[in-house]
Amino acid sequence: MLRRKILVILSRIPYPLEKGDKLRAFYQLRELAQNHDLVVCALSDSPPEEKAYDILGAFCKELHFFRLGKTGIARRLVTAFFARKPFQVAYFHSKSIHRSISQIIREHQPDHIYCQLIRTAEYARHSHTHKTLDYQDAFSVNLQRRLLSAAWHLRPLLQMEQKRVRRYESEIFECFDNKTIISYPDREGIDHPGRNQITVVPNGVDFAFFRPMERQKDYDIVFTGNMAYPPNVDGAEFLAREIMPHVWEELPGAKLVLAGATPSRKVRALAGPLVRVTGWVDDIREYYARSKVFVAPMQIGSGLQNKVLEAMAMQVPCITSPLANKALMAEDGRDILIGTKAGEYAQLILSLLKNEARRAELGKQGHSFVYQHFNWENTCKTLESVITA
């Protein structure tokens, strides 16, 4: 295969891996770097982790980290309000950074430009270099679902942003040679007549890292993720406030752990004698391994749930929602269990907590499913074929 120079533009520095877009970027970079030379431009609204340079520099040819200043962000958001631009895009699009990235493009003359998320699309929109946009998720669909549970005073703003993002997702489609996205349901959410041209590139699992581990079971139920992300906040509240009371009626001592970075005020308020909120953890595998059942009752959001893939890879039996499984496409009752209402989730949880053999069986079947369908080597081959076509 011809080795190519690829310029990658990211809206976040892909380390540490506490967010889904960072995880996707990290593993895609690692796989692409085996056959190609990568020049990475990553934005950040906070100082980068010191380890980021060493870890990413181990496989990227060149790294450029750009700081998004708070004053500039505020100014761009105000301007976007009146200019009818999505806040998602305005937040990340700095004119001074744009000039710097344009200079890097002129200096390196890359064979291809790869932009992750519509947040970075403006940086390459008018470039004549062959380019790919990774929508990753259908943001407009995510925003539409968030409207259903948003506080009344936030709904007008979310509704406005949802319409702008939907329009922008369609508008930017024509500006890129290739488009990718994380799942078929997300592809259907892009409001463009040519959406079937978007190549589905799922996420994968690092099976060398997320592997079954023998640990004492300190918790009955675990839910993980970035606990400031609205769909995770909503899922954590639904689990702790509506599902767990039904579980506690039969198993009064059942323990729940909510493990993940930056818990919001709403998530921190869930902590109690039987509910632990961890905040950032150094090794999330410990919480998967120390729990009997993983539950992700996602009611809003879009994309493919990495947390579910990770739990299944570690042979932790999983329960999730029809929404989350729409992208996963696991078989209910064989690979995973699917719940809808709070009482139904509780009965599924109780059925597993009371039956160790069933937990083991579901865990093994889930592991086989993700191993067969979700590994980074195969998914990144699909991405590579799009970029090098």
Radius of gyration: 21 Å
Overall geometry comes to globular
Number of DSSP E strands: 13
Q: What is the CATH homology-level superfamily of the largest domain?
A: Glycogen Phosphorylase B
Second-tier CATH architecture of the largest domain: 3-Layer(aba) Sandwich
Order of helices and strands: EHEHEHHHEEHHEHEEHEHEHEHEHEHHH
Largest sheet: 7 strands, parallel
The figure for the number of domains is 2
Portion in helices? 40-55%
Sheet/helix structural class: alpha/beta
Level-1 CATH class name of the largest domain = Alpha Beta
* Average pLDDT rating: 96
Strand order of the largest sheet: 3-2-1-4-5-6-7
Gist of the model:
This protein is α/β, with parallel strands linked by helices and 389 residues long. The protein has helices spanning 20-32, 50-57, 70-83, 87-90, 95-108, 139-149, 155-173, 184-188, 230-250, 265-268, 285-289, 306-313, 322-328, 342-353, 356-373, 376-388; strands spanning 5-10, 37-44, 62-67, 112-116, 131-136, 178-181, 199-200, 219-224, 256-259, 275-277, 291-296, 318-320, 337-338. The chain contains 16 helices and 13 strands.
Give the secondary structure arrangement, pairings included.
Elements: E1 5-10, H1 20-32, E2 37-44, H2 50-57, E3 62-67, H3 70-83, H4 87-90, H5 95-108, E4 112-116, E5 131-136, H6 139-149, H7 155-173, E6 178-181, H8 184-188, E7 199-200, E8 219-224, H9 230-250, E9 256-259, H10 265-268, E10 275-277, H11 285-289, E11 291-296, H12 306-313, E12 318-320, H13 322-328, E13 337-338, H14 342-353, H15 356-373, H16 376-388
Parallel strand pairs: 1-2, 1-4, 2-3, 4-5, 5-6, 6-7, 8-9, 8-11, 9-10, 11-12, 12-13
Helix pairs in contact: 1-16, 6-7, 9-14, 12-15
